[in-house]
Amino acid sequence: MKIQRQKARSNVVENLAGYLFMMPAMLVIGTFVILPIGWAIFLSLHKVRLLGGIDFQFIGLGNFSQLFDDERVWIALKNTAIYVAMVVPAQTLLALILAVTLNSGIRGKNWWRILYFLPTVTSSAVLTLIFMWIYNTNGLLNDLLNWLKLPTYNWLGDPAVALPGIALMNIWSTAPFYMVIYLAALQDVPQLLYEAAELDGANSWQQFRYITLPILKPVTFFVMAIGTIGTFQLFDQSYIFSGGTGGPNNATLTVVLLIYQSVFRNLQMGYGAAIACLLSVAIVILTLMQRRLFGGERT
């Protein structure tokens, strides 16, 4: 009996110690994740008056009903979906190509890593301003296209190319980050698998297709999931490119930029929170689809 009491007391002490160690993480998650989510849901169900004293008027699903009838919401969703479709596959493929190249034993690979990674550590606002100079009608890109006898564009003012211009910039600046993730995974692949495949007569492409890609499947899921979340949150580049308007002709209007306009320009905090909830649901659905497609287990 005495031994059982001691074991029970020991279990209580261990459980208490475990909860104490978890407390900092739980406080951070509760403060910066759970509480904001709950507050956003609360705001989405209310009409919030900010001028003349803060006031909350419960309207139920009124904000959600309004956003489904708002043409600009659908434009922003369409632009964001197109942007995600352009950036995520391209940055993932480019990151994989760069990682495989650097993992192949080329000379000076440490210097190449530093060179490739520089855009990732550069301020997003600075990169956007640099690309605005490049995309200017008299900028470097049009000069290059003109020299190659190719058509030039008004990259900042033409609705047909404004969003692809932002996508091109982000593919170039974000792929190196995912390259590092792929590179770490590639260096963890057992060399015995390649040696055995080589003895069986497999060439480099077959080794890559049947060994490297299957092993990298969970890493690819992680890269695409993080890339999808990041691209759905496009704001600063679109804001700087368009001056906060989402122009030209709403071509660069994204969901997060629309949330900003609703909250800080139109003072519709409840409506902005409803759009944020819609965005969160879209991100969760896409992430689950990617999880089903790529899975999380090595095959």
UniProtKB/TrEMBL annotation:
Protein name stated in the entry: Permease component of ABC-type sugar transporter
Membrane topology: Multi-pass membrane protein
Domain ABC transmembrane type-1 stretches: 77-290
The family this protein is said to belong to: Belongs to the binding-protein-dependent transport system permease family.
A Pfam family assignment: BPD_transp_1
Primary subcellular site in the record, as a coarse category: membrane
One GO CC term on file: plasma membrane
Domain of life: Bacteria
Keywords of this entry: Cell membrane, Membrane, Sugar transport, Transmembrane, Transmembrane helix, Transport
Any one of the GO BP annotations: transmembrane transport
Residue spans crossing the bilayer: 20-42, 81-102, 114-135, 161-185, 215-235, 269-289
